[in-house]
From TrEMBL:
GO cellular component assignments: Golgi membrane
Protein name, per record: Heparan sulfate 2-O-sulfotransferase 1
Keyword set, alphabetical order: Coiled coil, Disulfide bond, Glycoprotein, Golgi apparatus, Membrane, Signal-anchor, Transferase, Transmembrane, Transmembrane helix
InterPro entries linked: Heparan_SO4_2-O-STrfase, P-loop_NTPase, Sulfotransferase
One Pfam family this sequence matches: Sulfotransfer_2
Phylogenetic placement of the source organism: Eukaryota, Metazoa, Chordata, Craniata, Vertebrata
Coiled-coil stretches: 24-51
Subcellular locations according to the entry: Golgi apparatus membrane
Protein family: Belongs to the sulfotransferase 3 family.
Organism: Salmo trutta
GO molecular function: heparan sulfate 2-sulfotransferase activity
Domain of life: Eukaryota
């Protein structure tokens, strides 16, 4: 071959090299197409085998309950943190429950105390797990996380929640106590008549805007342990992070609520089918807005950010945000300014024993 290349004119050598290169590209392209065809064939065979196995198990009486029985037994608990757009999100559940055939129940605790007594914990766990008339059910309320595995019951609920930038949440709550919102405008709030702005409160060192008031999202996720409610506890922060990762299906953020709803609709269509469209077009999805809310100045924000309590609450918020964005990156794609859910990206193969 080397001798022939020496004897060939340069132009012919160049043409032969180009021809050889094109031939290799063609062969590689054909190999790639064959690989794709083989993969598609394997997936088709695998899906067929899965269907045959499911049919065989059904015929053999392996399934003692209807195929949808598990979906009908699901209970969701949304232990909502105050002023995180929780009412806006909950109203979507109320709008969908009739159409999607599930029950919505509000957990109303005395004086909005997020910590239940031991006897109420037992009663609540029994209700949620054994109240069949209320299944499938969506429970919501300002209640701290409760670990159902401690009570010796079968089946655990699906926990979801939403968190918010801690200072923005506190500002919203501050003005809510004074001016209420457009949800129930006639209701008299606890601090009604107090015209002092949030900035004036911070400047004067008031109790309603103190850094201790930031300590809320961590204990809500930490739960019913005394240490959870010790302001500034590092143990409580670590426990809240652990629960967020291990006990919650999904935790969204107020600032990206639409993405949170879209992902819930994809993961739990039994409850949230139609939720995304309702959020975009429905009247109730945005109905609750705090009245007379004024954004804080940079000086007020900087003063709060000097506290260790803010640093811990912000660390938890950033932790939740990072986890949410990680889950979202593996669930949706953006195209032309719109988000699209990814299709199923796994399948089963090499299923044995083979079905005759």
């Amino acid at each position: 071959m080397g001798l022939l290349r020496i004897m060939m004119p340069p132009k012919l050598q160049l043409l032969s090299i180009l021809a050889f290169g094109l031939s290799m590209l063609f062969i590689e392209n054909q190999i790639q197409k064959l690989e794709e065809s083989r993969t598609k064939l394997e997936r088709t065979i695998a899906r067929h085998e899965v269907r045959e196995v499911e049919q065989r198990h059904t015929q053999d009486g392996v399934r003692d309950t209807p195929p949808l029985a598990e979906a009908e037994d699901v209970v969701i608990i949304y232990n909502r943190v105050p002023k995180t757009a929780s009412t806006s999100f909950t109203n979507i559940a109320y709008d969908l429950c009739g159409k999607n055939h599930f029950h919505v129940l509000h957990i109303n605790t005395t004086k909005n105390n997020p910590v239940m007594s031991l006897q109420d914990q037992v009663r609540f766990v029994r209700n949620v797990t054994s109240w069949r008339e209320m299944k499938p059910g969506f429970y919501h309320g300002h209640v701290a996380f409760l670990d159902f595995s401690k009570y010796g019951v079968r089946g655990k609920p699906v926990y979801i929640n939403v968190v918010r930038d801690p200072i923005q949440r506190l500002v919203s709550y501050y003005y809510f106590l004074r001016f209420g919102d457009d949800y129930r405008p006639g209701l008299r709030r606890r601090k009604q008549g107090d015209k002092k702005t949030f900035d004036e409160c911070v400047s004067a060192g008031g109790s309603d805007c103190a850094s201790e008031k930031l300590w809320l999202q961590i204990p809500f996720f930490c739960g019913h342990y005394s240490e959870c409610w010790n302001v500034g506890s590092r143990w409580a922060l670590d426990q809240a992070k652990y629960n967020l990762l291990n006990e919650y299906l999904l935790v969204g953020v107020t600032e990206e609520l639409e993405d949170f709803i879209m992902m819930l609709e994809a993961a739990l269509p039994r409850f949230f089918k139609g939720a995304t469209g309702l959020y975009k077009t429905g009247k109730k999805s945005h109905l609750r807005k705090t009245t007379e809310k004024k954004p804080p100045t940079k000086e007020s924000v900087a003063k709060l950010q000097q506290s260790d309590i803010w640093k811990m609450e912000n660390e938890f918020y950033e932790f939740a945000l990072e986890q949410f964005q990680f889950v979202r990156a593996h669930a949706v794609r953006e195209k032309d300014g719109e988000l699209y859910l990814l299709a199923q990206n796994f399948f089963y193969e090499k299923i044995y024993p083979k079905v005759n």
